[in-house]
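so i finally got all the pieces together for this one. its two components total, 923 residues if u count the protein bits. some of the lines might not be protein, just check the labels. i wanna see the whole assembly predicted at once instead of chain by chain like last time, that was a mess tbh
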Amino acid sequence: MNHYAAWKNILIVFFLFITSLYALPNIYGSDLAIQITGTGDYIVEEKDLKGINNVLVENGIDFKSLEHINSNILIRFGDSQSQLSSKAVLKDTLNRNYVVALNLAPSIPKWLSGLGGNAMSLGLDLRGGVHFLLEVDMEAVISTSIDRYYNELRTLLRKDKLYKKIRKEDNLLAVSFKTEKQKNEAKKLIKKDLPDLIIVDGSESELEVSLEMSSNAQKVAKSSALNQNITTLRNRVNELGVAEPIIQQQGSERIVVQLPGVQDTARAKEILGAVATVEFRLVDEQNDVQTAIQSGKIPSGSKLYKFKDGRPLLLKTTVIATGENIVDASSSVDKDNQPNVSIVLDNSGGRTMLETTKEFLGYRMAVVFIENQVETIMEDNVAVKKRTKTQDIINAATIQGTFSNRFQITGIDSAREARNLALLLRAGSLSAPIEIIEERTIGPSLGADNIQKGLISVLVGFALVLVFMAWRYRVFGLVANVALTLNLITIVSILSMLQATLTLPGIAGIVLTVGMAVDANVLIFERIKEELRSTKNTQKAISAGYEKALLTIADANITTLIASLVLFSFGTGAIKGFAVTLSIGIITSMFTAIIFSRAVINLIYGGKDIEELSI
Amino acid sequence: MSLKSLNIPVINFVGNRKYALIFSAILLVVSIASIGFQGLKFGIDFTGGTLIELGYEKTADLEDIRSKLISANYKGTNVQYFGSDTEVLIQLEPQAATSAQLSSSIIRMLGDGLDVRRVEFVGPKVGEELTNDGGLAMLYALIGILIYVAFRFEYRFALGSIAALVHDVIITIGIFSLLQIEFDLTVLAAILAVIGYSLNDTIVVFDRIRENFLSTRHIEPSPIVNDALNQTLSRTLMTSLTTLIVLLALFYLGGEVIHSFAGALIIGVVIGTYSSIYVASSMILALGISKEDMLPSEKEKKEIDARP
C-alpha cells in the first residue's frame, strides 16, 4: 500500500528537474549594460558591431562584452562610470537611426539562456521607472476634423455656387441655401463626394440643413489620431533613450507608456505630454502695431501675436513653413552662450523659404512657438477639460541673406528648452493634444528597497512557517516543508517561463501563498491524525487522509482561484501582479502539497509495517 | 461514536452562537456607523491627487516643507515622515488646476539633489473610474463565488458563505474607517484576497458538515454542525496561524508601501477565521439545513413516491 507507480515517480522527478532548471536563471545577478536598437524601420545588424567596438576602443572605455542578439546590440560593463561615459560617447557618434539606452542585462550562462532560460521580469515598482496613462483629447480630434470638412464642403459647393452660408456650430456644419432646388442638388453632391458627412436627424428645413460626421467617420478619425499619437510618442521615447519601453493602446482613447529605469522623470513628462510646434511667418512691416491695438482694428492679412514678455507684433497670416516641414532639428549653444536650434526643412518647405527670403530680403521673419495643452480641472466637483493654446513669438529677426532648407532659430530661453524643442521638432508633433491622467513613478532607490524588503519578508515568513510546521507535524511537517520549498521554486520558475512581471504586490502574493499553500498539507495531516484515532492501520490512515482531504482542498482552492481571477480581470497593474502570483501559487500548491508530498511520504512510509507515524 | 470518546476537545460552538451573534451584530453596527458617519480615508487612487515621496540626506524639516507649500498656494496638503525621518511623504488633494506637471514643480521648488523615491498622480476621472471598478470587482467576486458554492453544495450554503463574506468585508472596511487608516488600491486588493481566504475556511467547514450529514444516522442538524466545527478546528487554527505568521512578516518587514495591504489582510484573516466558525454555520442552521437537503436523489425519489 501507498506506492506510486514508477512512471509517476519518474514524472515527478522530471517535473522537479524542469522547474529547478527554469528557476535557476534568477540566482545570477545582472550586468550594467547599454542596449542599442534601431529606430523605426532601421534594424541594427551584426556588422554594426565593428564600428561600435572601434568607438569604444578609441575612447578607452572598458567593457566586458559586446554582442548582437535579436536585432539588439548589448554592451556589458563592469562599472557604472564606463557605462555612463560610453552612453554619452555613443550617443554623439551614432546617427539618429540608433537608440542608445542604459539597461540591466541578466548575466545568465550561455547554455542556460540557450535553453530559453530567463530571469523573472521585474515590474516598475521593483526596478524603478515611470508609468504614464495618457488620454487623447478626442473632442479636439472631432473638432479639427469638422474644421477640415468645413473647408472641403465650401470648396465642393462653391463650384456651382450652391450655398448661401456655411456656419460651424460645435461639431455641426449648418448650411443655408437660396432655393430648395440648390439644397437638393447640394445634398446629392455631398452624398457623392463627402459621404462622411450625414444630415442630422430632423435638422432639415426648407432652406437649411445641418451636417455632422457619421459615427463611422468619427471612429476612423479617433483611431487614426490615436495611432498617430502612439507613433509620435514612440519617436519621442526613442529620442529619450529608454531600454524596453512599453507604448500601447488601452481602450479607445488612452495610451499606456512605461519607461523602465528612467532617471529624469520630469523631462520625460515634459516631452511626452508636449504638443508643441513652430511656425515661420513674415512680420507685417507696413502697419504699426500700436495703432492696430489702439483702434482695435487688425489689418486684414495680418494677425496680432505677442512675445513671451508680452510685447505685441503684427505677423502676416500666410505661413512660410510649419513644424510639419521640419525633417531634422538639433540644439547647440553658440560662442556667446546663446542656445539655438538648427533646423533642416523638407523640399517644399525649403523651396518656399528660398522664395520668401529672396523676395523679402531685409524684412523680419518671426518664429512662433505654438503649444496646445489640455488639463482636467474640477469645477463644482465635476471634472471638465480645459484647453489652452499658447502662441508666443520666440524671435523675429531680419532676413539678412537668402536661405532655403537649413537655418537656425535663436531667442530660446535656456539650453534645456532648446534641447526639448529640437527633440519635439524631430519626433514630430502629436496629431491631437494628450493629457497625462495617471502617473506612477518609482525612483531607483525605492525600487531597490522594495526588492530587498520583499525578499526579506518572503524569507522570514517562509522560515517561520517551516519551523512551525516541523514543530507541529514532525516528519510529516518536514515533508510539507520540502513541498513548500518546491512550491516556491515552482512559482519562480513559472513566472520566469511566462515572463510575467513580478511586482511588489506580486511578492505579497507569493508570501500569502506560502502561508496558504501549507493549508492543503494541514488538511491532509489533520485528517490522517483523525483517522489514526479510529484505526491502528497506519497505511490505511495515510491513504484515507489524502483521499478524504482531496475534495475539500479542491473546493477551497477553486473558490480562492475565482476571487483571484476577478482580481486579475479588474487588473490595474499593482493588483494584477498580486492576482498572477496568487493564482500560480494556488495551482502549483495543489501539485506540490498533494502529489509531491504524497510521493515523499510513500517513499518514507509506503509499504512498511509501521506502528506509529511521526505526525 | 461521539467526539468526546475520541479525546477531542468539544467546544459548544453552536450552543454559544447567540453570544457570537450579539458580538457580530455589535461589530457590524459599529462598522456601518463608522463608515456612514466618519467615512473612509480614501487614498489618492480613489480621490485623485498627487503623492510625492522624497528622500533627504539628513533629517527632513517638515515645517519648512509645509511653509514652502503654503506660500506657493497649494491647498489640502499633508506632509509627514514615511518610515524614517529622512523620508517625507507629501500628499496633495486635487488642486484647481491639477496636472501631472504639479509634482515636477513642487520637487523643483523644494530644492535640488533630493532623491525622488516615488511620484503618483491620479487624475480626477481615473480616481472615479477606479472607485467604480473596485466596487464592481467586489460584486463580481461575490457573485462568482455564490454561483460556484450553490452549484457545488446547495443554495443555503451559498447564502451562508456570502453572509460570512459580507460580514468580513464590512468589518474589515469598518476597522479601516474607525482607525482612519488610508484606504488605497492595495487595500482593496487585500479585501478581495480576504474574500478568497475567508471562503476557503468556510468551504472546509461546509465540506465537513456535508460529509457528516451523509455519514451519520442522526438527523438533528445542530450537533452535526457542531461536530464538524470541532473536527475542523485545529486545521482552521493552524492555517490561520501560518497565514498570520507570513502576514506579520510582511507587515513588519515589507516596507511602508505594503503596510496597509498587509494590515488589511491580517484584520481580514482574523475576522474570516472567526466568521467561518460562527457566522457561516449559524446562517445555514438559521436557514434550516437538514439531512434531506444533502441527498438530492432521495428527495426526488420521495417526490416520485408521493405521486398518486
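The mean pLDDT of chain A is 85.
The CA atoms of residues 281 and 319 of chain A lie 5 Å apart.
anyway lmk what u think
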